[in-house]
Amino acid sequence: MKLTDNVLRSFRVAKVFRENSDKINCFDFSPNGETLISSSDDDSIVLYDCQEGKPRRTLYSKKYGVDLIRYTHAANTVVYSSNKIDDTIRYLSLHDNKYIRYFPGHNKRVVALSMSPVDDTFISGSLDKTIRLWDLRSPNCQGLMHPQGKPVCSFDPEGLIFAAGVNSEMVKLYDLRSFDKGPFATFKMQYDRTCEWTGLKFSNDGKLFLISTNGGFIRLIDAFKGAVQNTFTGYNNSKAVTLEASFTPDSQFVMIGSEDGKIHVWNTEGGMKVAVLDGKHTGPITCLQFNPKFMTFASACSNMAFWLPTIDD
Fold first, then answer.
1. Is the Cβ–Cβ distance between 230 and 219 less than 8 Å?
2. The whole model's pTM is what?
3. What is the pLDDT of residues 33-58, one digit of tens each?
4. Alpha helices per DSSP H over the chain
5. Any residues with CB less than 8 A from the CB of 123 and at least 6 apart, and which?
6. How far apart are CA 123 and CA 14, in angstroms?
7. For residue 157, with 0-12 CB atoms within 10 Å meaning exposed, 13-18 middle and 19 or more buried, which class applies?
8. d(CA 21, CA 101)
9. The dihedral of CA 98, 101, 107, 109: what is its sign?
């Protein structure tokens, strides 16, 4: 089944889960799309079965808190940042709920975490104005960049380069094999003092990246030229909430939640808004991602919603 404007407009909430007592701050689909893992400000990690549409188990990270949770490539393992006590990144086995390794180094809150799509490398960006490069097999930092500002960062889909959005005004591209030489390209954007950049993501075809903000707009950027291809607005975000924006897996659409529980969807090609979907969320939709393998997506406030299309175009 192909994703079209009509199929997108037909999506409805199929299931709502109320497993959390506080907002869900992050979630991630497994690479095979069969499970989803969420982290919440209530210090819990909830594992969902996407095929059966139900929560499978709940783990807790009471001491350190949990944020920015990401699946690694090994089954049943995740990395996540802490939001209490320290700013160490933790590598957890879900199978026996034991830590495999710690990654100390940042001394302020980690605001970006991105797993390489191809190997055991990952990068983290922090309010300490550094980006660190890590390997899951070693607790030692493999590389350190000082981008001179708050960074949001992400790998490209081939895992060869990573992009860092710095100080909400420029994007620096680094080659993974020679990052110590500094960025090979820097794109300067128009600075908007009304808001901050909160996330950066590549499309699966590698041609575009998406910059999300805590304001009322998100930007679609040409990954090769650094030119703004589209600015998407018209969704509610008056309280400077960090709202996650995402591409669909086919790179054809961009979607974001809003503070009033609605999801807005645009076409990446022409920039037309194709749908506004009502998720009946009780709070701002802070997390939103499309399943990488199946025709479903998830959205979250303190509740988790799974969506399905109601037509087979």
1. yes
2. 0.93
3. 999 999 999 999 999 999 999 999 99
4. 5-9
5. 112, 113, 114, 116, 131, 132, 133, 134, 153, 154, 155, 162
6. 34
7. middle
8. 28
9. negative
